Amino acid sequence: MEQTVGSPPTGEKESVYKETLQQLESLLGEDDDLIASLANTAALLKLNIPSMSWVGFYLTSGDDLIVGPFQGKPACIRIPFGSGVCGKAANLRKTLIVEDVSSFPDHIACDPKSRSEIVVPIEVDGSVVGLLDADSEIYGNFDEMDKYYLEQLVALLREKFRKTVESRSRL
Q1: What is the pLDDT of residue 170?
Q2: DSSP structure string for 65-104
Q3: From the centroid of its chain, how far is CA 147?
């Protein structure tokens, strides 16, 4: 079945996020392919929220995070747990909002124009299996509303991660 998304939603931030979540539910459908789901999610976020200069996913591989599907400039390929905003969020297993990345100790500058960042860990059965990362060229671009809706978005993806983890454990 072909899934389409019309023009990006307009209006206040909250209404844009609500529409984005509805569009994502439609895009995800019944297909269980994780990579395709992450790719469409990153594309949808980049389309609908233009203040995100980079948005995508890092996937857990041992003690590292490996870049997954994303939209934006080329990214850092591998980030150790505990390093940078992504690695710190993975270690803490909580969403981190950084208003000014230049003031974040150990920030990894994949894009020197990045000014703010939000990272949302994705957990399955108590383990971090990946994370959603979004950057902006605007200082203080992300707030509690972004956190709330991006955590809702990650919740929509969690089942796809769970099925992938389960299928790998059967190999």
Answers
A1: 58
A2: EEEEEEESS---SEEETTSHHHHHHHHHTS-EEES-GGGS
A3: 11
Contact 72, 135 (CB under 8 A): yes
In the predicted structure, residue 8 carries a pLDDT above the cut 90: no
The percent of the chain in helix, strand and coil, each rounded to the nearest 5, is 40, 25, 35
Q: How many whole angstroms separate alpha carbon 160 and alpha carbon 81? A: 22
- Bridge partners, residue 78, by sequence: 66
Nearest to 139 by CA among 108, 104, 91, 110: 104
For range 43-48, the mean pLDDT: 97
Stretch 11-26: mean pLDDT, rounded? Answer: 94
**β-pairing, 64-71 with 127-136?**
unpaired
